[in-house]
Amino acid sequence: MSLISIRRYLSSFSVKLFLWFWFITLTSITVSRFITNQLLNDDNISIVAEQVNKEDLHFLNRIKAKLAQNPFAQIQNNHKRKKHRRTDLTLWTQLPSDRLKVDKLSKQKGRFNDILKKHIQTRENDTLQSVVYSHTRITGPIPVIYKNQQTLLFVSKKMPRKTFQHFLKEMPLWLKLMIPLTISFTLCIVLARSLSKPVLKMKDATLKIAQGDLSTRVTGLNTRQDELGGLARCFNQMADKLETNISAQQRLLGDVSHELRSPLTRLQMALALAQQKGEDQEQYFERCQKEINQLDEMIAHVLTLSRLENSFKPLNIASFSFTRLLKSIISDQQLLAENKQVNIECNAKEDITIQGDSHLLSGAITNVLINAIKHTTQNSTIKIALIDNNHQLSLTISDSGNGVPEDALVKIFTAFYRVNSARDRETGGTGLGLAIAKQAITAHQGKIFAQNISLTNKEHQGLAVTIELPKSQVNQ
Ligand SMILES: Nc1ncnc2c1ncn2[C@@H]1O[C@H](COP(=O)(O)OP(=O)(O)OP(=O)(O)O)[C@@H](O)[C@H]1O
Ligand SMILES: [Mg+2]
């Protein structure tokens, strides 16, 4: 697997979709686990410190000394001093009724104080110790006499918020729920939009094409490497093909209706003359027959061209001997050439096998050869050169006629184009032969082009039509 194909695979839509869902699922699992932990209150997990915290002990001893002087002294945590801002002071008093009374002396509220309360109530003995919860340290108890009662003194201190985990732990529950909800909501929106936007674009483009605007294309998605980018490119290719096919059809239809008129008019005239003249009708009927044949030929050509232009019909690809095909085409046209005292010279000796639709290729080559015979001068030679170039072959048919004007070298391959309309029509040409040949060769991924053969100090010395064909057909 090459690096490019791996990259293409990773940017594919299915992988993206998979990663998105996977990511969202993992986020949900992680967050729900975290919240469950929080709800189970991992503050219950405590570690007894090896030594009593000196700072806390000093603080407790200070209060003990103060109470020794005056058991009714006002004990308050001094929150104004930065050092004590995170300190929670609690006095636990044993009441005569054996009930417990917890006096909260500091102003700390909520969870911080809850941990301290829970610690006091659940501790096992009265040994002075420092116990560290996840982010709270509690030191105590120190027995004192407070308001004439035996009382135990504890101090709790919030540890500095060192970690992100502590920060998260202290968040209110609603915020803890909101964060994963917001993250997954945003991710899902991004995913949904990245899915729906191109689909909507394509839907709009399809609608426009359905309404007849064949120039519509999907824009902005061509660079996307995933399946949707591929779909957009295919859509545009389809629209291109549709546009060229339909415009080719419209052009052909216009040309056909125009071209059909001339033989029909001549047919009408011949029939009218045959009706008028009582005797000698034979020659008019012959004329009618000729026109009908021409019409028949033209319709057959139009149908072939239309099928090839639409490329709906798949090619009948098979391996065959090109040399043998060429020789049979030459022998078929030998009679036509002899009538004009034209000699056909072919250099093809070796047997060249190619893959292709032999019927279509035969039609294309026959037309080029007939054209050459029609346009070459009497008593001349038509040269056929077949060159085998490894993967492709090149066939050139050259005559010694007048050639065509330079600006018509390309035009002769368009339907109904004839250099000399009146004369070519008279000779029976429909002007479709080379257009059909071009479509047939293009369908084989080959090329066909014409060049005037000019010799130095001389006028045009005829036309050379070259057909280049790949020997094997791929993607068929
Ligand atoms: N070898 C040639 N020498 C000079 N002109 C040519 C030659 N081959 C083709 N042409 C010109 O190109 C035009 C188009 O050729 P094309 O084969 O398409 O039509 P056609 O021969 O007139 O009719 P069709 O082949 O349909 O019976 C011809 O009418 C002719 O004017
Ligand atoms: Mg022709």
UniProtKB/TrEMBL annotation:
It is found in: Cell membrane. It is a multi-pass membrane protein. Its EC number is 2.7.13.3. This is histidine kinase. Residues 255-473 form the Histidine kinase domain. It comes from Litorilituus lipolyticus. InterPro entries: HAMP_dom (IPR003660), HATPase_C_sf (IPR036890), HATPase_dom (IPR003594), His_kinase_dom (IPR005467), HisK_dim/P_dom (IPR003661), HisK_dim/P_sf (IPR036097), HssS/ArlS-like (IPR050398), Sig_transdc_His_kin-like_C (IPR004358). The lineage of its organism: Bacteria, Pseudomonadati, Pseudomonadota, Gammaproteobacteria, Alteromonadales. Residues 193-247 form the HAMP domain. GO terms for cellular component: plasma membrane. The chain crosses the membrane at residues 17-35. GO terms for molecular function: ATP binding; phosphorelay sensor kinase activity. Its main location: membrane. SMART domains: HAMP (SM00304), HATPase_c (SM00387), HisKA (SM00388). It catalyses: ATP + protein L-histidine = ADP + protein N-phospho-L-histidine. Keywords: ATP-binding, Cell membrane, Kinase, Membrane, Nucleotide-binding, Phosphoprotein, Transferase, Transmembrane, Transmembrane helix, Two-component regulatory system.
